[in-house]
């Protein structure tokens, strides 16, 4: 088979899409997660249900939504409800299988910072804040994170815990009593990290051509690698065609 | 299409409504989650030079960036401060980083839950805890109490009761009975929570139109104090079925908001330099109007029955 050319963003979208299962109910944001969900729906998960934080259920946008509240999400969707309803009836009640999360920093135990770099009261860099991620990280059955692999994004400890991963590790998350199972995978442009039994992110897969040294150099803690660390399947021609021709033809996110 | 419009005291111009109901120091909630954001009302507040406002919104958006840059605010209450789909909300962010602006921060649900408490007349609203305690420990409005039935801890937040809520809707009658569709955000709760409500309306309709589809009336006239006919009020956000979101402007704002000078120049040209929203829409010009055309996808009518 001829080698395919793909870029790091396409690699992340394709690998994130593969984590989704048919019939999953996904709480989704715009951008890369939105592409991953739509790609999954067009390939192995035709019955995926997408819920947008703005209160749109079963969206089938006819164009690429450019904001979380794009009008194209509403037209042709199965239901639209208030934000109170989406956070209570869907998320808090336990009707969401998968949440996608992002943030400026993700730490060794998969806690996320989307709030502030430096001191909270005297911020060095003020970030956008939680939005819905505090609730999604706590209450969705499982969560995925998609982010480029850079050392500054993966410190050993985040400056501020906006959303829960596994806190200090061990059974710390479980002890809090939050209903959701927490992060299951972090997909980056270098590979995939997953929490081990202690909640610590470890390297479980690398993309073709990537070395452990490369990943370790871009991680802010001494990154462990599982013994059976695998190589991810490269994006196939079908996945790339759907992404490039149908989902994001203007190449806004990929 | 209005027949026999009653000149009630509620039906008024936007400038009169702002003058009457928005005062220095008020807590203002200009509602709308990416949809139906009442930009025209914010611009009128800027024009009237109202100061020291506490601006609350789940997503401050470009509107509060502009109002903060114009010097209207002393504090923001929010849960996500960004230029949606684009990046940083530069003026609010700069004001927070420099310490010029106070803030009070929530997650989306805790923010919305505060409105729900206010709208329901309750002393607080509970929510399941999220396991992430850093924000809880920074904002004393978050409290934990024991569930009286199981003893498990729940997080509670107090009511948010704005002095005035500004809510844009697709269509309403002169009494303020309003039909809203598309993304509903926190529109309804903001209206019920606030002490005073200014309704800005895309299309004024006869009461009979409202009565033809009562399930679509999310905001009843009984909580509305002022009704203002303001077509295209929401630009650069959008009004479902009337005009599209102006994504190009959201991108342009990322550039404009890089410096205070260019923001002030923008405000000079597009806010202070114009009398009202009609002039603003005309100034945008036919190319923008065409680009934001909504097209048509009608819903199937429902039969309420002839009883």
- Helix content estimate of chain A: 25-40%
The CATH C-level name of the largest domain in chain A is: Alpha Beta
**What is the domain total for the residues of chain A?**
2
As a whole number of angstroms, the C-alpha radius of gyration of chain B is 20 Å
Distance between the termini of chain B: 26 Å
In total, how many beta strands of chain B?
14
**Low-confidence runs of chain A (pLDDT<50, min 5 residues)?**
none
The CATH architecture of the largest domain in chain A can be named as 3-Layer(aba) Sandwich
- In terms of per-residue confidence, which ranges of chain B show pLDDT below 50 for 5 or more consecutive residues? 1-5
Shape of chain B: globular
Alpha-beta classification of chain B: alpha/beta
- Which CATH class of one domain in chain B applies here? Alpha Beta
Strand order of the largest sheet of chain A: 4-3-2-1-5-10-11-12-13-14
Largest sheet data of chain B: 9 strands, mixed
Helical fraction of chain B: 25-40%
- What oligomeric state best describes the polypeptide chains here? heterodimer
Task: Give the helix/strand layout.
The complex is a heterodimer of chains A (about 250) and B (about 300).
Chain A: H1 8-17, E1 25-28, H2 32-42, E2 49-52, E3 56-57, H3 71-74, E4 79-80, H4 83-92, E5 98-101, E6 105-106, E7 112-113, E8 116-118, E9 123-126, H5 133-139, E10 142-146, H6 172-176, E11 183-187, E12 191-195, E13 201-206, H7 212-217, E14 225-231, H8 237-247
Parallel strand pairs in A: 1-2, 1-5, 5-10, 10-11, 13-14
Antiparallel strand pairs in A: 2-3, 3-4, 6-7, 8-9, 11-12, 12-13
Helix pairs in contact in A: 1-2, 2-8
Chain B: H1 14-21, E1 27-30, H2 39-47, E2 53-56, H3 61-69, E3 73-78, E4 82-83, E5 87-88, H4 90-97, E6 102-105, H5 108-120, E7 125-127, H6 134-138, E8 143-146, E9 153-157, E10 164-172, E11 178-179, H7 187-193, E12 196-204, H8 207-211, E13 217-219, E14 226-229, H9 247-256, H10 260-272, H11 277-291
């Amino acid at each position: 088979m001829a080698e395919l050319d793909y870029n790091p963003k396409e690699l992340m979208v394709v690998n994130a899409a593969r984590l989704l299962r048919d019939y999953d109910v996904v709480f989704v944001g715009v951008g890369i997660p939105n592409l991953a969900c739509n790609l999954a729906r067009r390939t192995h998960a035709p019955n995926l249900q997408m819920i947008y934080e703005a209160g749109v259920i079963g969206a089938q946008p006819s164009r690429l939504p450019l904001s979380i509240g794009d009008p194209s999400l509403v037209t042709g969707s199965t239901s639209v409800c208030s934000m109170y309803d989406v956070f209570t009836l869907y998320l808090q009640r336990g009707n969401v299988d998968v949440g996608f999360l992002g943030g400026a920093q993700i730490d060794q135990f998969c806690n996320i910072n989307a709030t502030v770099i430096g001191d909270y009261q005297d911020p060095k860099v003020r970030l956008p804040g939680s939005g819905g991620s505090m609730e999604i990280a706590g209450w969705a059955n499982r969560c995925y994170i998609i982010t480029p692999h850079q050392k500054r994004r993966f410190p050993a400890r985040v400056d501020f815990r906006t959303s829960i991963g596994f806190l200090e590790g061990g059974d710390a998350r479980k002890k809090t009593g939050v209903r959701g199972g927490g992060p299951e995978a972090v997909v980056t442009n270098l590979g995939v990290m997953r929490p081990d039994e202690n909640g610590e992110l470890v390297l479980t897969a690398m993309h073709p051509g990537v070395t452990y040294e490369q990943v370790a150099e871009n991680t802010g803690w001494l990154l462990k690698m599982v013994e059976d660390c695998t190589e991810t399947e490269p994006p196939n021609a079908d996945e790339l065609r759907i992404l490039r021709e149908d989902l994001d033809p203007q190449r806004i996110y990929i | 299409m209005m027949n026999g419009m009653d000149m009630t005291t509620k039906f008024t111009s936007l400038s009169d409504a702002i003058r009457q109901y928005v005062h220095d120091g008020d807590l203002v909630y200009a509602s709308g989650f990416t949809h139906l954001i009442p930009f025209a009302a914010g611009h009128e507040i800027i024009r009237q030079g109202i100061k020291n406002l506490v601006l609350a919104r789940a997503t401050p958006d470009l509107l509060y960036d502009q109002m903060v840059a114009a010097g209207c605010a002393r504090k923001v209450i929010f849960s996500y401060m960004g230029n949606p789909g684009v990046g940083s909300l530069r003026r609010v962010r700069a004001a927070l980083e420099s310490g010029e602006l106070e803030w009070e921060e929530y997650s989306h649900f805790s923010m919305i839950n505060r409105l729900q408490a206010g709208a329901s007349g309750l002393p607080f609203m509970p929510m399941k805890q999220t396991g992430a305690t850093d924000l809880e420990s920074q904002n004393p409005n978050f409290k934990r109490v024991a569930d009286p039935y199981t003893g498990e801890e729940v997080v509670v937040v107090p009511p948010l009761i704005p002095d005035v809520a500004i809510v844009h809707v697709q269509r309403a009658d002169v009494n303020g009975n309003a039909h809203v569709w598309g993304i509903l955000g926190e529109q309804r709760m903001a209206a019920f929570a606030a002490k005073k409500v200014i309704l800005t309306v895309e299309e004024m309709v006869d009461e009979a139109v409202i009565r033809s589809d009562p399930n679509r009336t999310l905001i009843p006239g009984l909580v509305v104090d002022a009704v203002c006919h303001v077509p295209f009020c929401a630009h650069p956000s959008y009004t479902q079925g009337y005009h599209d979101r102006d994504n190009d402007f959201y991108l342009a704002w990322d550039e404009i908001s890089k410096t205070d000078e260019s923001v002030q120049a923008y405000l000079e040209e597009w806010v202070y330099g114009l009398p009202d929203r009609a002039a603003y829409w005309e100034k945008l010009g036919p190319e923008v109007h065409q680009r934001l055309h909504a097209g048509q996808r009608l819903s199937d009518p429902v039969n309420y029955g002839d009883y």
